[in-house]
Amino acid sequence: MARKMLIDGELSKPGEEKAHYDFDLFVIGAGSGGVRAGRFSAQYGAKVAICELPFDPVSSEVTGGVGGTCVIRGCVPKKILVYGAAYGPELEDARSYGWEVNERVNFNWKKLLHKKTEEIVRLNGIYKRLLSNAGVKLFEGEGRVIGPNEVELIQLDGTKISYSAKHILIATGSRAHRPEIPGQELAITSDEALSLEELPKRAVILGGGYIAVEFASIWRGMGAAVDLCFRKELPLRGFDDEMRAVVARNLEGRGITMHPCTTLTKLEKTEGGIEVHTDHGEVILADVVLFATGRLPNTKRLNLDAVGVELDKMKAVKVDEYSRTNVPSIWAIGDVTNRMNLTPVALMEGTCFAKTVFGGKPTKPDYSYIPCATFCIPPLSVVGLSEEQAIEQVNGEVSVYTSTFNPMKNTISGRTEKSVMKLVVDAETDKVLGASMCGPDAPEIMQAWHCHCTEVWSNQGAV
User: Fold this and answer.
1) Coil, strand or helix: which one is 248?
2) Low-confidence ranges of the chain (pLDDT < 70)
3) Residue 5: strand pairing partners
């Protein structure tokens, strides 16, 4: 009798009864990656269940929502606020184009907030329908792993029920990190920042990553005074240094007070607001203090240690190149693995998981040439290597091409921001290794350019 090799490496044996499970796949976490993996696995014929915490714009250990961070408290609501904030400077510029704008233009924060909440509620419903239409069983509650093939669901009323599954997929994402300094409870994270009842007049932001510079742009565009404190000399560590300098110059030009090589030591509540103390002895008074100091994998309550799933020093789930943990029946994708923490990457990993486990086509995620954008105002977008990375990684000479120009729109408005474009090229082969752009519509331009070049390179065998 022939033996069949299963994806988990187990061999079926003659006369052996097939194990019965409640589900072929149980997904813990219904964010972008988990929903994609669940839907695509179901399309391959798997019996799939997925669990997620009840919906709330602000996440906690007991709240979440189908759609996850990106849809509910990340990319989508953030970009809505960025779009809203961009109208402030646009209205100022409109005067130069002949529009007779009153000296004071009122901004209704609560109206925008309401529109934002309406949109994420709508998207939450769409994601639920996507699961339902694919035949995926959705459970509302907290999931935890209690065995290699068993998930315990803590339901909304507190009762517990367990389900068996041939495969378990962890897709619980990440959560905002709070630095431990005196008075840290007075600060907020990006979750709360997207749902503030009142727009702050004075804001202090700690952090130099994309969340920090985006919220600095949002609040400044809406008229707030913003102080941005970050540990390095430039924001956006890991991006091309030249483009980081461009972003810093633009933020400062928009009226954001920059505090490089600075961190916070203490927060104190006073009658006039929150006193923010820096390690340089400065004291800044603020209505809101935002900690944008990174995110940590959301593994705390999953019971993974008890099951023997290995975690790294950041408490991220350790996986192989196919997203499989050291326990053969347990897999993980998305930010909980702390590989490349972007929504499109989680979607790719979910697709590859479904192909590997249920599609009969083992597929590794490909992390090369993934475009990303930082939605500061104006935005920065990149794909491939920075100049520094190329010099470090490439054997041979690297050519760098830059173009700096004044966007035509600015010639009339008088705004002094320059658009900057940069290509990093292998000097020997003329292959483009990396591209960056900071300026109006940079994300859309970079995405279109990346798609075109990927097709060309693929046809030429260069990628």
Assistant:
1) helix
2) 1-18, 450-463
3) 11
